[in-house]
Amino acid sequence: MRYAFLLLAAAAVATPALAQDARKNPSAVYEDSIIIGVGAASVPRYEGSNDNTFIPAAAARGTIGGYGFTFAGTTLSTDIIPYRASTGGKLVLGPVAHLTLNRTSDKRTRDPQIRALGKIDKAIEVGGQFGYTQTGVFTSDYDTLNATVSAVYDVTGTHESVIITPSISYGTPISRKAFVGINASADYVGGKYARTYFGVTPGQSLASGLPTYTPGDGFRDFSVNGLANYSLTGDLRGGLSLFGVVSYERLIGDFARSPVVRDRNQMIYAAGLAYTF
């Protein structure tokens, strides 16, 4: 699970600030801001689990000197192409780092057969993103459309694979107090990733009772995420706000057919408070 719901949450609460003076002055220089969000989330116990657990959730997004960053869950992404104005379009480009914790703890996995497969080491994946963002698209000067592709590679030797994630998102305020957003994405993973998290070796088969399985590379999933954000202080451009997120992910192909997968439909629910300053 790539914690897309936190990425969407961090992006959505930031979006209204992107065009705070657009109606008065469309060429206004972009103003820096920082958003911090904390809350709780219900997430699958592992990728493919049919059982959820609650975890703390945290995210931050901001711009300093026009340069952007997003920290959400275990993912850090940056945009080294600065914002120059509060409306219009710009390229997105920057490094990305992610920490994968899937099946790193026996305590989190209740299924005895999955526990018998053994723990998997943490994986640190490093790479970059490229895309385009447009502010002022359909409904107002404040709505935003983003399209990006990220690619990261495991540098820790855990699965030694690339993960490529194309995504598209759209968000729009429906008032000064309320904002809604939607995001769609997919993940393409390498063969070693597939075998590490979704495969079953002969030794693991003997230990767990699951049949042997050797998946190949390909698209692992697609996901759709929705968010609603509501200001508690009267204006989403500053102060305290409340957000809620629902995320649906469906495992596909070799990954959905894996004996490790108990449910190919993965749901995430999250809620929390965000502060913009």
Structural class: mainly beta
Oligomer: single chain
Order of helices and strands: HEEEEEHEEEEHHEEHE
Work out the helicity level.
Answer: 10-25%
Number of helices: 5
Straight-line N-to-C gap: 30 Å
Biggest pleated-sheet summary: 12 strands, antiparallel, barrel
Q: Identify the overall geometry.
A: elongated
Radius of gyration: 20 Å
| Poorly predicted spans | 1-28
Strand adjacency order, main sheet:
1-2-3-4-5-6-7-8-9-10-11-12
Strand percentage lies at over 45%
Average residue-wise pLDDT: 88
Strand tally: 12
Question: Would you kindly provide a written description of the structure presented here, covering whatever features stand out?
Answer:
This protein has 277 residues and is mainly beta. Helix content is 13%, strand content 49%. It has 5 helices and 12 strands. A 12-stranded antiparallel beta barrel has the order 1-2-3-4-5-6-7-8-9-10-11-12. The longest helix is centred in the N-terminal third of the chain and has 11 residues, at 4-14. The protein is elongated, with a radius of gyration of 20 Å. Mean pLDDT is 88; it is low at 1-28.
List keywords for this structure.
single chain, 277 residues, mainly beta, twelve-stranded antiparallel barrel, 13% helix
What is the topology?
Elements: H1 4-14, E1 33-44, E2 52-64, E3 67-72, E4 75-79, E5 88-100, H2 112-116, E6 123-135, E7 144-154, E8 162-173, E9 178-189, H3 191-198, H4 202-208, E10 218-231, E11 239-251, H5 253-256, E12 265-276
Antiparallel strand pairs: 1-2, 1-12, 2-3, 3-4, 4-5, 5-6, 6-7, 7-8, 8-9, 9-10, 10-11, 11-12
